[in-house]
Structures are given as structure tokens and as C-alpha cells.
Amino acid sequence: MTSGGSTSTTQSLGGYAEDPADIINYVSKHDDETLWDKLQYNLLTDMTLAQRVRAQNIAASLPLMAQGIPFLQMGGDFLRSKSMDRNTYDAGDWFNKVDFTLMDNNWNKGLPLAQDNQGNWSTIAAYMTDPDRAATPDDMQLASAVFDEFLSIRATSPLFRLTTAQDIMDRVGFHNLGENQTKGLIVMSIDDGTGLTDLDSQVDALVVVVNATEQEQSHRILTATGFELHATQAASADVVVHGATFSEGEGDDAGNGSFTVPALSMAVFVKPQMGEQGAGLSAFATAGAPDVVPYGDNVIYVKGSMNGWSNNDPMSYIGGGVYELTLSLNGGETYEFKIADANWGPVANFGSDSGTVTLGDDKVLSYNAGNLSITPAESGDYVFRVNAFDPAAPVLNVKNDNPYPGTTVYLRGDMNGWGTTDAFTFIGGGQYEVVVTLAAGTYQFKVANDGWNTVNFGSNDGALEPGTVDKALEYNAGNLSITITEEADYRFVFNAHNAGQETLSVGKSALFGDTVVYIRGSLNGWGTDDPLLLTSPGTYSVTKSLTAGSYEFKFASEDWSTRNIGAAETANVEVGSALPLAHGANPGNLVIDIAVDGDYQFSLSGFNPDTPTLLVTEVSVP
After folding, report:
1. Taking the complete model, does pTM exceed 0.85, yes or no?
2. Given a cut of 90, is residue 349 above it in pLDDT?
3. What pLDDT sits at residue 62?
4. Exposed (0-12), middle (13-18) or buried (19+): which is 476, by Cβ within 10 Å?
5. Which of 203, 271, 603, 617 has the smallest number of Cβ neighbours within 10 A?
């Protein structure tokens, strides 16, 4: 079960259950500190008492807005404290007291027991004397009232209690997505409009906006119209949330809408159902929206002293408003350049009057401003990345394509005595690859450099298996582990292209093992004349001479069952574009249109033999 889409959609957040009733949502429980106490460690030190209460109100109420089963700790709705004790099993009523009269939240009753808390006594003592952490009866009453309001909102609409995974996939969407998202903001919608069973006769859609920042935030959603603040919150005991508003788009933006929510607030908006069921708000209004290319069909270039200020180096549009280009630069040499279209305007001619670019730092550009300059310390390939989400003020970032220049990265674990015998090779695109022979067994390991400092990646949820793709890694986290059932060569790829979003993928180097896989289709009578050959770890290729025309084909073993690989989501193959495929009982045929006679290489690559990726490239044209 996922929120806002199956695992094949762009809105997938990762599936981990089949039924909403299998999900227990909580932010605090009987173990560890209460929510109020825990937040004292995590909130900014300069927050006021009022801000801390608002932060708790959001955190305590989040499970009430989520699908699944809320699990609530007693007293969490009115700021209950155990005086920072993280284990009160034997602490008695002194630390476990709950005051239902809302006069005392049990804060500052002395230092908690030494057994589980002594290491934090100095910090706890400082917190206890801070007036901005000592909740008053008024604070407790406000928190309780706000929690009761969210409890009422949940209880009065079945949309917060969906009972099937399919309903969640069809109805629940998220709208603050991608690298351009506003940090600290969650925007969730629940659809009950036409095309869906009418579960709530009072509304056609709901939107929940969680603003965990210290500033008012607004967020625009395509096709959002007709919303208003929930009546319960319009009369809320929290007068701040009265300022949450919805505004309709005007002019060219008509038919869309913006939600504005005060700082440290969670607001629920409703689209009232006026009699018959009307249009709601699609779960895919954002994730399924077409990608709007910021500069349309205009090619954008890096133009500067590295290429004679020419149009020789076009950037590639990679989606989400982002353009990229990799250039080879010499260490110690200063390059001046700009980001421009072919004619230096009027679409793009971007620079900066403070033109020095620092590797890895974002720089906002201005139209028709001065030249940019960069001086790389080392020779190598450098990625120029322009985020034009705001086309009038694009953001440039330049970084070394090798995230760790001069540092050797190793696979270190049980397979090599945690030593440095298995070095990764940098393969470009911020990625490193190593192939190791592993016998059957379970291995713990990490990705690290020789000093365990610059590079030291693991996971606090570290289990992998062959076929795992893009396992999220964390710096200085726990060990990874992999269980191998068959001795073979295994390929590990560490992707550090985006700092803070490092991943690891692993699979057999010979993806299909001993099985011979052929390209079979109208290009060869559906026969077995053209086997794929292992050309590099995880990659198989075959080259075919083709005349212009349309061809249907698949990739399959001789028996059509051990391997039968065809269309996953789409059947149309484009030369030069990667396409995910799927193995199954009888997946659909693939279709490719060849425009020009020539030799074409068909390559399958990946980590899981059931879900390889196809890339067709033009080798030569007569």
C-alpha cells in the first residue's frame, strides 16, 4: 500500500502493507520520553514556549490526519511530561503522573533516574530552568482543545479512515514534491469527487496542509478550486489557524488555487459537496501533471571561455525544470561563462554581477547580468546544473562529477575482513562500481574510505538482497547486510550524485546467470539467432542491422518462460531513451520505429533480472 500511487507511479512513497488496518501510526508511546520531553531535544533552542506548544500540537495530531490506525500515548494531547525520563517503568507515580485537570503537565519534578538518563543530566538540568519549556495550564488547555478538534475532524469524515489500499492509491495525493519543494511543508489531498464512490456526502475533496516552519507558507495546486477552511478550524480555540485561507487563481491561473497556512500550524480545507457529487481534486494533480519545460523548445547552452563562447555545448533537459551538462575542465584554470540561448536572448542570457561560482554552492542568476567565473582546483569532469523552476531567476550549481576526488571508496565488511581490498571504480555520473565474488551466506558491510571519515555510509534499516535498487544510505549509520543464496559475482553501485541522497544498488554481475537471453521479434522471425552478450557488469548487448520501418520484439530465453521480458508500462521504444521493462508470464510486445537504415545496439542492464532497463542506440548509419 502506498500514499498517492502504486509503486510504479511517480507519486509512490514506497509500499509496506496491503491494508490500511495493518498500519499503526504514532509519534510517541510508553517507551522513551513523552512527546513533549522528546521535542525539547529536537526543537530549535531559541523557540518560544508558544512555538513549542504549536509544534507539539502538530506532532501529536499528525496520526489523526493519516490513513491507518492512530496510536496515542496517554496525555500526549495536553503536553504530558515525565520530566525527561526516558524509561519510567520503575519510576513510580512521581514521574508517571497524569493530571487530567490540566493544571500540571508534570514538568521539572527533579532529575530522572540515573539508570537510563544520567548521561543527559546536565542537558536536562538546563532545560528544567528554562521558562520557555515550562508549559502552563493555559498551554495545556489549548493543546487539548486543538487535539480534540482534529479528533472531531477525523471522526466526521470517512475519508480519513479509508479501508482499502486501492482507495488510498486512487484518492490520497501529495503536492509539495521534488527538489523544488518547500522544506517543512506537507500538502496532502483526499479525493471524493466524480469518478469515485461517494464516501462522504458533505465534501468532494479535502486538503491537509502541515506548515512546520516558522513562517507563513502558501502552496498552489493545479485544478484546486472551491475550497474553504474546515468549519471546526474556522471556530478553533487556536485563533492563529483562523488565518488559514484558500484563494482562487485569476486570469491565466484560473482553475487553480493556493492554500495559505500560518507558521507552525496544520490546517484542513474542504471542498463542500453542493448536492450531487462534483469534481474533487485528483491524487495526481501534481505528480501526474505534465512537465512544463521552462524555456520551451529553446536550446540552452553553457557558453564561455571553455568553448570559445560558442553554441557547442547544449544542456540537456532532465525534467522538473532542470538542465544539465557535463564539461571537462582543467584544474587551476579560470573560466568565464554564461547560461544563454543560441542568440544571447531574449529567452536566456543569464549571469551574475557577483560572478564567482563556488563549487557545490547554489547561485541565483539574473538576466543580462555579468559573466560568471569558476576556477576548479582539479582537472576533471564538472556538472553544470541549472534549476529553472523560476525561469526568471534560475539557480546554477556546479560540482565535480566525482563526489570524492582524490579519495578511494571501498566496500568494507565481512566479505573482506572489513579491509580495503575491494575498491570501487568511479564510472561517472556520481557513481562508483565494484564487483566481488560472494559465497552463500549473510554479510554485514558499509561503503567507506580508508579512514572511515569522508565516506562512511550505512543504514539504520540495513537489509538488502540481490536485486535491490537505490537503497537509501545515511552517513555514519549502522551496518548494511545482504544475504546471498548462490555463489556468484555481485555488482555493487554506490550513487553519490546528489549529496545527502546517497544510494546503493546490488545485483548479479551476470544478471541472467546461465540463461541465454535473445532478442526475438519481427526483426529476426521471432527466433533465437541473436543472443545478448554480457558486455560489462550488469549489462547485455546485441547489435542488429535494421532498415527503416517498425518492429515488434521481446527479450526471451529459448523456452519463452525462464525469461520473457517485454513492456512494463509502455511498449513504445525510442532510440536513445531508457525504458524500464518487465519479466512475466506474457508481457506485451515492444515496438520501435527505425527512421534511418543502420546498425542499432540493444542493451539490457540493471540489478534485478525481472526489471531490466532497455537502451537502444544508433551505432552507425550508412
Report:
1. no
2. yes
3. 97
4. exposed
5. 617
